[in-house]
Amino acid sequence: MRIGRDVRRANHNSRGARGRAALAAALLVCLTACSSNSGSTPSPTAPTPTPPGSTTPVAYTAIGASDAAGVGASVPCLPLATDCRASTSYVGLVQRRLSEGRTVTLTNLALPGGVLSPDVQALGNELGRGIPGNFVTNLAPFVPPGTTLVTVFAGGNDVNTIASAIGAGRGGSDPNGYLTQQVQAFARDYGRLIDTVRMRAPNAFIVVMNLPNFGALPYIASRPVAERRIVQDVAVRLTREAINPLAARVAVVDLMCDARSYQGIYSADGFHPNDAGYAYLADVLMAAITSGNAPAPAASCGFMTLVG
Fold first, then answer.
1. Which of 19, 137, 162, 292 has the greatest CB tally within 10 Å of its CB?
2. Which residue range(s) make up the domain with 216?
């Protein structure tokens, strides 16, 4: 199978790839040099705090990969940016909307090309994907302690990495068993990410977005059905078995079962959102932020089986 090479295009098929890698490297260097750990904090198992009030100042930290940097948007939001109100990325749009009537400070922990965990990073680099870092060890420890709002979008690059590994035969004669192990590890590490964020910023309201069905997205539409099914299986299982259960602890926004996730909201590379896509993400995030919750993600829906 060529799935490893083809899904890699989602991260590395444009002239902007080198620029994103440089941004990621600069982010990691700056975080290591400029940030410090806080002291002891309340238990990470405490209930998620309520969202900021309509006039309360907001300290917003965004955790994500190239999406948080607005790759594909007409006006991006650079890693470590503190003011993205002019950006058409979802991070910038959320900051702009929250800024209506109150002060909003931003820390954009965008890591282009990043994945959730050290294990997926190591797996991807074994496959030659050149993954620059991960959210658990490279981003979460640097959430500012005064943060009152955190958004997290993790898993897109992980889907492509795990699918590439399966396509390369890493699952041997039991690819489903291999995927199960990867899903379980992803769930464990997402929990570690949330724990670290809670320990760093105990007063933060946390909103997580689950994943759309990447097997049905434009970047992989030209590939054989068998390969698209692998990507679909990975995305669906990560969402259903690892991310959705986090709804017991944080607000989880359901992208997988929202028809808008599949309606022409992607940029030329077929993977990153365009301006309309980022506006959609900002809309669903703001709905959760202003209401203080999100509807429970669907256990199943037709969008989980778009690739027949």
1. 162
2. 3-9+56-296
